[in-house]
Design goal:
heterodimer; A: 436 residues; mainly alpha; 23 helices; globular; B: 185 residues; flat
Amino acid sequence: MSVTITTIAVTFLIMLAIMLLGMPIAAVMLLIAAVGGVLTFGWPLVESMGPVMWSVMNESLLTAIPLFILLGELMLRSGMADRMYAALSLWLERLPGGLLHTNIGSSALFAATSGSSVATAATIGTVAMPALNQRGYDKAKSLGSIAAGGTLGILIPPSVNLLIYGSLSETSIGQLFIAGIIPGLLLTGLFMGYIALTNKVSAEERAARPRLPLSQKLFALTALIPPALIFLIVMGSIYLGIATPTESAALGVVAALIIVAVRGQLSFAFFSRCFVQTARTTGMVLLIVLSAFALNVTLSLTGVAQTTTAWVTSLGISTTALLLLLVVFYLLLGMFMDVLSMMVLTIPIAVPVVVAAGVDPIWFGIFIIIMCELGMVTPPVGMNLYVVHGIRTDGGPFLDVVRGALPFTLIMVAFSLFLIAVPQVVTLLPQTMFGP
Amino acid sequence: MQRLSLILSWFFGLALLALSLFVTAETVARKLFNHSFQGADELGGYVLAVGGALSFTVCLIERGHIRIDLLHDKLPPSIQAILNWLATVLLGGFGLFLGYYCWLVVRDTMTYNSIAPTAWATPMIYPQGIWYICLLFFSVTSVALAAIATKRLLTGNLAAINKDFHPKGALEELTEELSDIEQRR
C-alpha cells in the first residue's frame, strides 16, 4: 500500500506542528510511526517494532555514539580546551583580528568534542570573553566568531552527527568522517580569512599584546599535544583501516583516560560529572535515533521514500536545482528546529530522493551537516546564538550576536553552493583511504 | 531522583570504560600479534543495549529529552502547564510502548531459547534480559512522572507542573555548565 505525496506533506506538517508545541521529539516520532503503521497495516506492523528496538540498540556500530560522547566529556572536563585556547591565542593574536582567530581555531581543534555543544561553547566563551573585553574587541564580532566557531564541531570528525547520518542512510561512517576533513579545514580557513580581511591591527591592540620570548611560546604549544594526539589516534586508525569507528572511539577514550590520569585529574567528582553528562546526552540521542528507526519501518512499508522520489522526478528539475531547493528547505527548517531532530526527520526521505538524482550519499552527508551548522546560527532558534548570548556578562542586546554571526552564515551558504559546484572537495579524500 | 540518575550513570560510564579497555586490548592484539580474541563487536552491542536503556532514564530525570521551546515560553502559564502535562504523558506512553513491545522480544527469546550466531554463542536471554530490566526502569520512571503530572493537573496545581516538567532550554543547560566551569577552576 502506498501513500500520496499530499498525505506525506500533510503528515510531515502535522508532525512539525506537534513538535513546535513543545512535545518531546522522540515521542512524537514514535507516535506518528505507530499511528501511521496502524492506519495502513494494522497492529502487526507495530508489533514488528519490538525486534527493531533490540536490533538498533544491539548494533555495535552505534556503540561509537556513547564512546565519542564520553571521549568529548573526558577532554572537556579535564580542561583541555581551556589550556588549548591559551596556547593558540599566543600564536594567532598577531594576525589582523587577533583573538577572533583563536575563537575559530580552538573551536575547530576542539571539534573532537562530540559531547554537548553547549558545554563546548560555554567553555570557549568563558575563556575568551574576559580577554576579548579587556582588549576592547567589537562586541558583535567577538560574539559572532564564538557562535560560528562552535558550529565546526559537528563537521570536523569525529562527529556524532555524521555517525547518525551514516547509520540512518546506511553509508560508511569511516568514509563520512574522512570526507569531513577537507570541508572542515576549508570552512575554518574561510572563517579565519574573513576575519583577517575585515579587521585591522589597531595601535592600542598592538600595545596590549604581551611580549613573550619564543621559548615560552613554543612551550605553550605542548597544550595542543593531547587533543592533537587523540585526533590522530582516532582518525588515523580509521583512515589506515586499522580500526572501525567504534574501535577508534574506544582507542580515543583510553588515550584520553591515560592523559587525564597522568595529569592527576581523575577523581570521583570528575567521573561523576563525565558519566552523568555522557548518559544524559546518549539518552537524548539514542531515544531519538530509536524512534527514527521505528518511524523508518512505517515509512519504508508505506513507500514514502519511493512516492517522494517519484514526485520529485516528475517535477523534471535538474540535480543542481534540487539541491538549491534543499538549501532553502533546510535554511527554513533550521530556523526553528534543533540539529538532531532536523537530521533524523529528513534523512530517511531526502537521501533516497537525492541518490536517485545521482548525488553521492557521502557528499550529501557533509551537505546536510553544513545545513545543520547553519541552523545553529540562524535566528530565532539558533542554539549557538543563545548560548553565546547567555555567556556575555554586559547584558547587551541579542541582536549583537545575530549581527556578528551573519557574515559567517553567508560564508556557510556560499560554501555549500561551492560544494554543489565542486563535489570532489568532499568525495576525493574518502576514495584514497585504506579502510572500509 | 538525582541519586538514581547518578547511580545509573556510573553503571553506564563504567561499562563504557570497561568496553574501551577491552576493545583497545583486542585491537592492539589483532594488529601487533595477529591474534584476535573475538567478541569485541558482540560485547559492544550488549553494552550499547544495556547502557543505552539506562541512559534513557538518566536523560528523563535530567529532563534532557529534546523539546522545542520556541513557542512554549510565549504561551500563558495555564496552556504551558497543559502542554507540559501532555509532554510528560507522551513520554510515559513511550515508556509503556517499550515496556510492552520489548517484552514480546524477550518472550520470543525465552520461547525459542535463542542463541547469538556469534563466536561466543551467547544465550540471548542474558543480554536481552538485562536490557529489558534496564528498559523497565525507564518505563516505571516515565509512567510515575506522568502520574505525578496528572495528579497535579487534576488538583489544579498548574504551577507545580510548570516548575518540574517544563522543557529545559539552552540557557538552563548553560547555567549548569557555567557553574561546572567555576568548580573546575
